[in-house]
Amino acid sequence: MGKSLSFKPMKVLENYSLKKHNTFAVDVNAKYFAEVSSTNDIIKLLSDFKEIPKLIIGEGSDILFTKDFEGLVIQDRLKGIEVIDQTANNVLLKSSSGEIWHEFVEFCVNNNYCGVENLSLIPGTVGASPIQNIGAYGAELKDVFYSLEAIDLKTFEKKIFTARDCEFDYRWSTFKGKFKNKYFIISVTFKLSKKDCFNIDYLGIKEALGENHKNLSAKKISDAIIKIRKQKLPDVKKLGNAGSFFKNPIIPKAKFEKLKKKFPDLKFYKHGNKIKIPAAQLIDFCGWKEKRIKNTGVYKNQALVIVNYGNASGKDIYDFSKKIQASVKEKFDVEIIPEVNVF
Q1: Contact (CB, 8 A) for 318 and 111
Q2: What is the dihedral of CA 36, 4, 68, 134, to 10 degrees?
Q3: 34/14 Cα distance (integer angstroms)
Q4: How far is the C-alpha of 171 from the C-alpha of 340, rounded, in Å?
């Protein structure tokens, strides 16, 4: 497992395998690795390892390692969920960053707090959720976001970020831009509804609900989303993957109209004054669904998902993804960009 250094209140491990800490199950090493369960742990680590690169991970569900990480990998284990304020209609719910996202959703659903049920079964932690503004089935993190607290990796100072500060966009926040690798998010506060505010218009939800759509609850919607996701997505315990590998491309209307003439079956969604096209459809049209090269392939039930069938390296997976990008670009003249962070 690696050599343990003398370090309190936590252990720091050297040359530590990250295979169990990334959902692609890629076997690479971190020069140093530590788990933190308090802000004191975080500040102690940051002050003792000032001059080396740092990577903060939750469940490793949005990462593709193509090589060893020559720095310090910090795994977030901060826990705790608390109600910090509420009215007759709303509740402010603060969650520590290391809470598993789906377990947080279950907590909300079981307490009849409405707003995150469409985001059920998304892998990862609460702390990772605002970084790329996670979204699914017609809902996004920004819809329920109130604020977050983070620690500056250089000064160790704590800072509160509002929704405006985060600059949320489609699978985007400022933490993927100017503040990338500059903060450790330690908690996120959500504004949820205590009244019914259900969103079931997205394709497939009503079908999955069946008779349940007549008497809705957050639990019924969550169960329907879980059913859909389990049908479409592979279990990371059986097949290494990071969920959706690519973002859905957003293109100008004029470009879409030209594409539509050439490919009349293209599905699309309005996105402001632009058009969002399902990347899975483009990948499928290029013949990649179920295609496999050695130990890397596209999942049979969802063309957005690249899977590790065995002992594929991170470079194998990355090279495979580049082939998909190139074929989509060649056929449609559309760029598809990874959601996954490549290291």
Answers
A1: no
A2: -20
A3: 9
A4: 11
Contact by Cβ (8 Å): 28, 18: yes
Closest CA to 121 of 248, 234, 209: 234
CB atoms within 10 A of CB 11: 13
Cβ–Cβ < 8 Å for 303, 283 = yes
Burial of 84: CB neighbours in 10 Å, binned 0-12, 13-18, 19+: exposed
User: What's the N-to-C CA distance of the chain in angstroms?
Assistant: 21
Q: Which residues contact 95 (CB under 8 A, 6 or more apart)?
A: 80, 81, 104, 126, 187, 188, 189, 190
- Tokens for 168, please give them: 């949320």
Q: What pLDDT is recorded for position 199? A: 77
Residue positions annotated with a catalytic role: 171, 244, 339
For residue range 301-322, list pLDDT tens digits in order: 999 999 999 999 999 999 999 9
For residue 5, what pLDDT is reported?
41
d(CA 287, CA 296): 15
3-class state of residue 258 by DSSP: helix
* Amino acid type, 309: Y
Mean pLDDT by 10 residues, the chain (343 residues): 48 96 97 96 94 94 96 97 96 98 97 95 96 92 98 96 96 95 97 87 74 77 91 91 95 94 92 94 95 96 95 97 98 96 94
Separation of alpha carbons 263 and 334, rounded Å: 13
Alpha carbon separation from 203 to 24, 63, 301 (Å, rounded): 28, 28, 16
3-class SS at 322? helix
Alpha carbons 45 and 50: distance in angstroms, whole number:
8
pLDDT of residue 92: 98
Cis bond before residue 9 (omega within 30° of 0): yes
Q: Which two tokens stand for residue 84?
A: 């910090």
Question: Quick one: tokens of 220?
Answer: 């019924």
